[in-house]
Specification:
The complex is a heterodimer of chains A (295) and B (393). With 295 residues, chain A is mostly helical. Helix content of chain A is 75%, strand content 1%. Chain A is built from 14 helices and 2 strands; from the N terminus they run H-H-H-E-E-H-H-H-H-H-H-H-H-H-H-H. Chain A has a two-stranded antiparallel sheet with strand order 1-2. The model of chain A has no long low-confidence stretch (mean pLDDT 88). Chain B is α/β, with parallel strands linked by helices. In chain B, helix 3 runs parallel beside helix 4, helix 5 packs across helix 6 and helix 6 runs parallel beside helix 12. The chains are: A mainly alpha (295), B alpha/beta (393).
Chain lengths: 295, 393
């Protein structure tokens, strides 16, 4: 502070910074790095270290003595294996559904619609993000209920809605994450030059051939970027399953009950490692496709 | 090329972070604090000027939610103790929050009290210093969940029963037994509901007490491994027919209104809301008896304002405040005189000792069997939580 108040010192500091680019960089980066490392990474690491501790069953106090029991329980317990498979299954289905819906929408927005319609469509895509997550999840709860809109619409056809359960959770999650999948794909498609598409058709390729051989390969990184969102968000979610999932539970529910009900932070931390490991594996897999540059 | 360097750097900083974390936590390894023996207060001093309270929603109302519901301002004016309060959603949350040491007073249900006592988070209470204590129903005093070795750990607040709720259109004839949600649940497959908490295992154990006497269950909160396995088996069979588990009371109201649930565990206060909406539901206390809760106002062992805490316990258990607070929440009050301040005591069977005797109040399951058996080890709450997660699958 004083340095800024005294003009001489201020000038000296600025000339020092002008000639020392590394010092300049360090000053600029201090705040964000503190945030990222201390508040974010260290806090998370500290939490995960508790996975190696144990909890006194009676008093509920955490005793910080090292043990691999929690990790072993999570890796070998049949409950955790079943729930992990279910959670990954839900995340994969949600991702596939979202990509299938997002592709035509994003393509229309980027390549077909007029600039005016494009702006409106972007706004329409973003609009659901203005409402709270909980409002949207509860809206689906009433849509899917026994006397809900879905059953009312289906009634003349003799069909019935899925009711509460995994299907309902997949529908709701697909709805919730759709904007996060449309936007990266739209951004990726916008980058595909129109001239390439014109060239393809000039050379006699059919529309489908152009889409398959020109547009799709160029958009793949963007699509993968979209899947990272829907996949990781589904993997970590537990509220939707609580609201519309009926009796099903996913990894997030297990973490929640172990923190909230069981007061077993070490086991909860061990369970939380599962989605983290899966996501890191997925990121490592897609890194080479260049998808991360599209985020 | 650029990407690989980036990744290397990221890995390096992650490693640094992990090392830092390990170093930091290393310092923590010695800081283990076990429960410390605490003595009750023998006399009261001057009020400290403030008191901080942890309670269920609706227990500490100062008019900020609803101007007509306020029993805190009167207390502040009378005692000079400014009240700050925090509400919690589940007993487990309350136990966690009390560990912070930020609260002087807590309103705890029976599934939390023993954990709080064992953890050394609450102190014994000298009930002689609380004039209102004399008016409390005797059947609520010195019970397994609010006393240890004959020492009282607080003042009873309200109590209530977990009831069997059913849709009067669908569930006919009207059920009189919990078999509607256990052995006969398949009739309502997909529309049965159950309370989402490990403590619900006690409901299954209670059912087995009557229907499988050979298991020898004396107390639904004192289960050895065999008895727990039987209860878990019953709940796993029930799960096939369960539409959803509930713990949020608004969710419960909605699913009975929409017809997604037609039979299951519920509370009187939920029935009151449904009746007000005109929903076709009714509740019954089944012939096997039921589980329920009896809440206790407790004082933190490290209370910063013990005198104001004592003043609050006396105030909240005085007939007028007790009547208002329990009426607002929807449960029976803990004293006869409180019924002079509310007109719905009958609906909650207040003071009906016979009705109350059918309620097996929530108690924390512990390894030392609560029914007095010494030849076996009972399953504790951690074990129940693990079992509950297995049941839900």
């Amino acid at each position: 502070m004083n340095a800024l108040l005294s003009p001489g010192l201020g000038r000296r500091t600025s000339s020092f910074l002008a000639t020392h680019s590394r010092a300049r960089l360090a000053l600029v980066l201090i705040a964000p790095l503190t945030w990222l490392v201390v508040v974010y990474v260290v806090a998370l690491a500290l939490l995960l270290v508790t996975a190696l501790w144990r909890v006194d069953g009676y008093t509920g106090q955490i005793s910080p003595s090292w043990t691999l029991d929690n990790i072993r329980t999570v890796v070998t317990g049949s409950l955790y294996q079943t729930v992990t498979l279910r959670t990954v299954g839900v995340a994969v289905v949600v991702t596939v559904v979202d990509v299938l819906i997002a592709l035509p929408i994003a393509f229309y927005m980027a390549k077909v619609a007029s600039p005016r319609a494009r702006r409106l469509l972007v706004i329409a895509t973003l609009m659901p993000l203005w409402a709270s997550y909980l409002v949207k999840a509860y809206a689906w709860r009433s849509l899917l209920s026994e006397q809900g809109l879905l059953n009312w619409v289906l009634a003349p056809t003799g069909l019935q809605g899925p009711g509460y359960g995994l299907t309902a959770a997949i529908i709701t999650l697909s709805y919730l994450w759709l904007p996060y999948v449309i936007l990266p794909i739209y951004a990726g498609l916008e980058k595909v030059p129109d001239s390439l598409i014109e060239a393809s058709s000039d050379l006699g390729a059919s529309t489908w051939r152009t889409l398959g051989s020109v547009v799709l390969p160029l958009t793949t990184p963007a699509i993968i970027a979209g899947t990272i969102f829907s996949f990781s968000l589904s993997l970590g979610d537990y509220i939707t399953v609580t609201i519309v999932g009926g009796t099903s539970q996913v990894l997030g529910n297990l973490v929640y009950t172990n923190v909230g009900a069981a007061n077993n932070l070490p086991l909860a931390a061990a369970i939380a490692l599962v989605p983290i490991v899966i996501i890191f594996g997925y990121l490592a897999l897609v890194r080479r496709t260049g998808a991360l540059d599209n985020l | 090329m650029l990407r690989t360097t980036k990744v290397k750097r990221t890995t390096a900083s992650a490693a640094v972070a992990l090392l830092a974390a390990a170093a930091l936590t290393g310092c923590g390894t010695t800081a283990v604090s076990g429960p410390s023996p605490t003595a009750e207060q023998t006399s009261l001093g001057d009020n400290e000027g403030s008191v901080s309270i942890l309670a269920w929603p609706g227990y500490v109302e100062d008019g900020s939610n609803d101007p007509s519901v306020d029993w805190v301002s009167g207390f502040e004016a009378k005692t000079g103790c400014a009240v700050t309060s925090k509400v919690y959603g589940t007993s487990d949350e309350a136990v966690n929050l009390m560990k912070t040491g930020d609260y002087d007073v807590v309103a705890a249900s029976g599934d939390a009290t023993l954990r709080l006592i064992a953890g050394g988070d609450v102190a014994p209470v000298n009930t002689d210093l609380i004039p209102s204590y004399a008016g409390i129903y005797d059947f609520l005093k010195n019970r397994a969940w609010n006393s240890v070795d004959g020492r009282s750990y607080g003042v009873p607040h309200g109590y209530g029963a977990n009831l069997l709720m059913y849709n009067t259109d669908v569930v006919q004839p009207a059920p009189t037994s919990w078999s509607a949600v256990f052995d006969d649940a398949s009739q309502y497959a997909g529309k049965v509901t159950a309370y989402d908490s490990p403590i619900y295992i006690a409901d299954a154990a209670l059912y087995l007490m009557t229907h499988k006497p050979e298991l020898g269950i004396k107390d639904p909160y004192a289960l050895d491994e065999t008895q727990l396995a039987a209860a878990v088996g019953l709940l796993k069979a029930q799960r096939v027919n369960v539409g959803e588990y509930w713990s949020d009371y608004l969710k419960q109201i909605q699913s009975f209104t929409s017809g997604d649930s037609v039979v299951g565990t519920s509370w009187q206060v939920i029935q009151n809301s449904l009746a007000a909406e005109g929903a076709k539901t009714a509740v019954v206390l089944p012939e096997e008896g039921t589980t329920g809760w009896s809440d206790t106002w407790m004082i933190a062992s490290k209370a910063k304002s013990p005198n104001c805490a004592y003043a609050w316990l006396d105030w909240i258990s005085s007939p007028e405040t007790n009547g208002k607070a329990t009426a607002y929440f929807g449960e029976a009050p803990s004293s006869e005189a409180a019924c002079n301040y509310r007109d719905d005591c009958e609906a909650f069977h207040a003071g009906d000792a016979d009705y109350a005797s059918k309620i097996h109040y929530w108690t924390t399951p512990v390894a030392a069997c609560l029914d007095g058996r010494t030849d076996v080890t009972c399953t504790d709450y951690t074990r129940w939580t693990a079992a509950w997660q297995e049941i839900k699958g």
